[in-house]
Amino acid sequence: MCCNSSAELGEWFINADGEKERGDHSGNKTEIALLLFCENVGADYQKFREEYIPEDGVRFPFTSSRKRMTSQVDYNGKSYLFIKGASEYILDTCESIHYWDTDEIVPMTQEKKDEINKAIYTMAKGTLRTLCFAYKDIESIPEDAEPNKQGVYDIETKGFKLLCVTGIRDVLRPTVKESVRKC
Fold it and tell me: The pTM is what?
C-alpha cells in the first residue's frame, strides 16, 4: 500500500495557536485513506517508497478505465509488481493466494475464488467498496508493450498472488443527500 500509491499525506506543523495541525493531503481519496491506515499501524510510507521504489521503476497509474494501479518494487535483490484495484478486476489476475500467517502460497482454485467472491459480495452488500491487493515476481518489463483499449498492459493481467481483499466505506459528501432528494 505504501509503495503502490501516488498520494501524499499532509505534513504536520505547529499552527499560530501553538497546536499541532496537519496540512492538506494530495491525491486520490482512496489512496489517502490507505496511507492513513498505513500510518495508523506504524508504517512510514515515505521511508518505504525511498527504500523500495527504483528510480527507473514502472508505474501504471490508476484511471477510471483501468480500475487498477501497478507499481514496481525492488526488495532483497528481486523485482515485483504490486497491483491494487477494483476487486472484480484484480481477483481475475490472481493465479494463487499468499497466506501471510504461514507464508504459504497456494493455487487459486475455483472453490477459493468462489469463497473470496462471496466475501466481496458481503462487503459490497454492506456498502463497502472492495479492493484487492496482489503482487508477482518479475524479471523485466517489456519496453515496447502497448496497453489494451482500457489502458491495461498484458503484464498486469495474469500471474499475480492475492495478498488481501479489503472494504472501504466511502463517506458521503454533505451535498449528496440533497442531490438525491431532488432526483
Answer: 0.84
